[in-house]
Amino acid sequence: MIKVLKYCFDNWWKPILFLLASWIFVLLADSFKLDSLSYISYSFLGLSVVGLFCSTIYQLVKKRWMKGIFTFSFIIGSFLAFLLYAISSYFINTIDGDKWADNLIIPNDIELFIPNGDLLSTPNDSLFNIKKDTLDFELYNSFQPGLYEYVVWIDRIQKGTVYLKAFEITQEYQLSEKTLLKRSSIKVNNPTDAILNFRLNDHFTIYEGDWGKPYAARFEVWFKPDDKTPERKLAEKIYKIEGWMR
Questions:
Q1: DSSP 70-120
Q2: pTM here?
Q3: Could you give the residue ranges of the DSSP H alpha helices within 180-219?
Q4: pLDDT means per 10 residues in the chain (246 residues)?
Q5: Please, are residues 205 and 244 in contact by the beta-carbon 8 Å criterion?
């Protein structure tokens, strides 16, 4: 442990270099809209700030006062830089906006569902009280427009994974194709005839579109068995949704 601390923090500039590299990673991932890497880049950025905090304590314990203060200043600077970056991104997106959904029209001759309230604030007990007579699923809003969660109710089924596919219904355009499978995956197994619910413990993102520009999307629940037998579609519904502003 002591060797690890010395390797990471004796050279006080190493955590700072890691912070700068993390910022470059974030900017590149966001600039090129590499969605799968954005989550990783922000994780590295958070880890680098933790590293700076540990380095500050290490320098102060070693009575390297100036190095400790200098390192701590990078923590403050990083928070200010992140705040400035978030605010500027928000205003750029607000002014420019995502034009993807501007000309989409929701047909009148469809059965259209509305996402429910925030699932993260819904106790499991409340979900257990929702009774279903057959296989079904419900889409829930998350903490921002364009971010969603869901619950699926399933009777007897072997071990496997359920996940979502989504399509804008007038153009059959597949939404968030690169990220939705992974972000919406839920492990399931129900050896009984009782209908059990399985909930997503995180959220997934629909990137296409913008806040305040609703459109109709067909969500399909697919099942991928662990025994490598063919995947199959279990259910589908059409929901009125918005894309995540970016």
A1: HHHHHHHHHHHHHHHHHHHHHHHHHHH---TTTT----SSS--B--BS-ST
A2: 0.63
A3: 180-183
A4: 73 90 88 74 90 91 89 91 82 62 88 82 60 90 91 94 96 92 95 91 90 94 94 96 81
A5: yes
